[in-house]
Specification:
By secondary structure, the protein is of the alpha+beta class. It has two domains: 118 residues, Creatine Amidinohydrolase, Chain A, domain 1 (3-Layer(aba) Sandwich), CATH 3.40.350; 208 residues, Creatinase/methionine aminopeptidase superfamily (Creatine Amidinohydrolase). It is 33% helix and 22% strand. The protein has nine helices and 17 strands. The strands form five sheets. A six-stranded mixed β-sheet has the order 4-3-2-1-5-6, sandwiched between helices. The chain has a four-stranded antiparallel β-sheet with strand order 12-13-16-17, covered by helices on one side. A hairpin with a 3-residue loop joins β14 and β15. The chain is elongated.
């Protein structure tokens, strides 16, 4: 298995009634494939077979040598070895990820390899990934450090006439130069009133004096993501100055209220209520959640209650049409004593 100490040789404590687990990549990557294998690459339609004895990868000819060279999986076989797959699956109780396995492939496995039973374990897979190990936290922290360094460097590229697209490209290049493997997600750059759209697509809008600048970006380090948002101004803001000031004040107060509530055992609906009530008192409506869990995916499922070891991206934001938006986002580890910024 991979180096994740939480799972090494111990995964079947979560799946006591299963004989085998299949994690199958298609043209859409299943994040659990990397999580359980540690393998980097495409690995399209390759199969990870996890049994109580070992983990076996059935790799395509395109990825076979790549898999061997990474030395993450002890047993690597070619995907054409259907006899091995049949022996692993036939008359067995098989777990699979129903969130990613296509229906056609599901029926093909049932018809061709004749498992005794196929069980959708997608919800349990999500729960396994919620609490991060020390090793995982260190990787997220490194991704955060890379992103923060890029934010420190980006203001030197603020020039009148630069477009959102151009600035996003510069930021992406900085992330790579600072050690990111790839973007955790597509970088958002929004100037002026465009920042009122939370998921604005960087376009050809040009930077001009008095503009707000919103940048939402994340690095990826050894497969783990960061997610941060920063606000900048280009010169002095004169238009809608008081409105924008009130938006910054609202976000800062909301952020403090959220962070004060982040403790193990607290339900997410309680934190959501604090977030929404604080915004409403200031005259703003929530357009999105207060945050999300992060890990091998930038948006991972949230547990019903906070737990020690959960890593959250906290992102309070307020938005006013034809004026702009203000969002501040940082990543936090939940500890016994509350949140610790990474």
């Amino acid at each position: 298995m991979n180096s994740n100490e939480k799972l090494e040789g111990n995964i079947f404590k979560f799946f006591k009634n299963l004989d085998c687990i299949l994690i199958i990549n298609t043209n859409i990557k299943d994040p659990n494939f990397f999580y359980f294998s540690g393998l980097k690459g495409l690995f399209e339609y390759d199969i990870l077979i996890i049994t109580r004895k070992n983990t076996v990868l059935l790799a395509s000819p395109l990825e076979f040598e790549n898999a061997l060279s990474q030395k993450k999986i002890k047993v690597v076989k070619k995907v054409k070895n259907s006899l091995f797959l049949r022996r692993s699956v036939k008359s067995k109780k098989i777990g699979f990820n129903g969130s990613f396995l296509p229906t056609a492939l599901y029926h093909q496995i049932k018809r061709k390899y004749k498992p005794k039973r196929m069980v959708d374990i997608s919800k349990t897979l999500e729960k396994i990934r919620v609490v991060k190990t020390k090793n995982e936290v260190e990787k997220i922290k490194k991704a955060v450090e890379i992103t923060k360094k890029a934010f420190e460097k980006i203001p030197s590229f603020f020039k009148a006439g630069v477009s959102e697209k151009q600035l996003a490209e510069v930021f992406d290049r900085l992330l790579l130069e600072l050690g990111s493997e790839e973007n955790a997600f597509k970088t958002i750059v929004a100037f002026g009133k465009n920042s009122a759209s939370p998921h604005h697509e960087p376009g050809n809008s040009k930077l001009k004096k008095g503009d707000l600048i919103l940048i939402d970006a994340g690095a990826k380090f050894e497969g783990y993501c960061s997610d941060l948002t920063r606000m900048f101004t280009f010169g002095e803001i004169k238009k809608n100055r008081e409105k924008i000031k009130s938006m910054f004040n609202c976000v800062e107060e909301t952020r403090k209220s959220i962070l004060a509530s982040l403790k193990p055992g607290v339900e997410f609906k309680e934190i959501t209520k604090i977030f929404e009530n604080t915004l409403k008192k200031k005259g703003f409506k929530p357009l999105h959640s207060f945050g999300h869990s992060i890990g091998v995916e930038v948006h991972e499922p949230l547990p019903r209650k906070l737990k020690k070891g959960v890593v959250l991206a906290i992102e309070p934001g307020v938005y006013t049409e034809n004026v702009g938006g203000v969002r501040i986002e940082d990543d936090f580890l939940i500890t016994e004593n509350g949140p610790v910024e990474l």
